[in-house]
Amino acid sequence: MNTLQNLLFCNPKAALLHGKSVGFAAQKSRFRNAKSKLAFFFGSFFTKAKQKLMRYTLYII
Predict the structure, then answer these.
(1) 61 by DSSP, 3-state: which?
(2) What domain of life is recorded for the organism (predicted)?
(3) What pTM value is reported for the model?
(4) Which of 2, 41, 47, 49 has the fewest CB atoms found within 10 Å of its own CB?
(5) Where are the beta strands (DSSP E) in 1-61?
(6) How far, in Å, CA of 48 to CA of 40, rounded?
(7) Burial 3-24 (b: 16+ CB within 10 A, else e)
């Protein structure tokens, strides 16, 4: 009886676990995409701010 129960339970369990891992992979992918865009945004923002600061400093001198 245990072997039969095991066989009946294994297929749905495998399908369920696969669905769970797919969800986590998608979530990880979204986070990775947002993280790379955030780095680009901050890099361009601080570069522009630094350029403005240098312009104002040269203007004052």
Answers:
(1) coil
(2) Bacteria
(3) 0.22
(4) 2
(5) none
(6) 12
(7) eeeeeeeeeeeeeeeeeeeeee
